[in-house]
Amino acid sequence: MDKIKILLADDHDMVRMGLKTYLMLEPGFEVIGEAANGREVIERLRITSAEGGDLPDLILMDLMMPEMNGTESTRLVVSEFPGIRVVMLTSFLEDKLVMEAIEAGAVSYVLKTVTAEELIYALKGAYRGMPVMTGDVSQALTRGIRQRTVEADSSPLTEREKEVLLLIAEGMGNKEIGEELHISIKTVKTHVSNLLMKCELEDRTQLAIYAHRQGMARS
């Protein structure tokens, strides 16, 4: 069976040396290259591809690196070299960073606190296209997805809703707003209901105050 070819990307020489030493002793793995930042990763892959050399099967990618970070580099790798899979290896567990790395195309997101056995398991899983994440990372990803959903649901006001809000701030009733905008009273009521829901307010008075505070109302 051919060995799984790996490129190590980390801006710390000692980290790369430690990973390389361990992986070279592990049956089934071969470290075929190293890079100190994301830009170096892309340059190395492009040169190797142009020369017809062996590309890695996996990239063990550090997240925070100078010149180009792991997320940016991963996005380019996935775009230009779709056959290469990326495993993010980092000390950072922020929800946003996990989300960005996975969205960029990383197969797995692994913390540097994992055991050697867990890292090997993650690499073998990534090689087969199987995402591997610890419980902490999975929770961070779940929180990130939930927050993204909340942000998406908090959609901005439409242009028509802004017009209605402006007229409410000027003290107009539903009938007057309908006449001003040439829409039915039923449509006006729908816009008012949407405004109350989106702005999380309870009545028209609060909508009027909200419009003034947002600088939307004419003085």
UniProtKB/TrEMBL annotation:
It comes from the Bacteria. Keywords: DNA-binding, Phosphoprotein, Transcription, Transcription regulation. The modification 4-aspartylphosphate is found at residue 62. PROSITE patterns: HTH_LUXR_1, HTH_LUXR_2, RESPONSE_REGULATORY. Pfam families: GerE, Response_reg. CDD domains: LuxR_C_like, REC_NarL-like. GO terms for molecular function: DNA binding. The keyword DNA-binding applies. InterPro entries: CheY-like_superfamily, NreC/VraR/RcsB-like_REC, Sig_transdc_resp-reg_C-effctor, Sig_transdc_resp-reg_receiver, Tscrpt_reg_LuxR_C, WalR-like. Residues 5-127 form the Response regulatory domain. Residues 150-215 form the HTH luxR-type domain. This is DNA-binding response regulator. It comes from Saccharibacillus kuerlensis.
